[in-house]
Amino acid sequence: MGCGCGRESATGNCVCDVLREILDAQEDVIENCCETSCERSINDLLGETDPGTGLDTVPVILYCKDSCKPFKGFGANRYNDELGKIGEMQASFIFRVKDIDDDCCAVLELLRNPNDPCKCDHLHDPCDQETKGLDNTGICITVDLNCFCHVTCLPAISVFN
């Protein structure tokens, strides 16, 4: 089955297929015509360009199908790990793929720089987000990958040091 982004598609959804490929590559690293940025990041993650890199994550930015704008996810952890109390809301345009089911529903973890004091209000566009020192937040959201038309892969990083 063909796909509008110049690749063959297993599911009919390019975004789903690329994220599934990233997930498979990440799981290989951690239990639990031209080269595109996603392919390069996947190769870096798998150590095909430089073995023994210790990289474990391909950060992604997704673009909503209807607006073609970058998707911003929101969530919160528990306040001081207390059951029944919600901590400060956080937002991110950058995610780590955690899981994808057969219907192309994905669990994504928000990635943020823990030293970036602003959590939501200043993020109007991915360029507003601090990318140096991205780390996992433990905040996961579930999305329908059929709602996205584009994925941008950032260089592979390590969030599980």
UniProtKB/TrEMBL annotation:
Keywords: Capsid protein, Virion
Protein known as: Spore coat protein Z
Protein source organism: Ornithinibacillus halophilus
InterPro entries from the UniProt entry: Spore_coat_protein_Z/Y
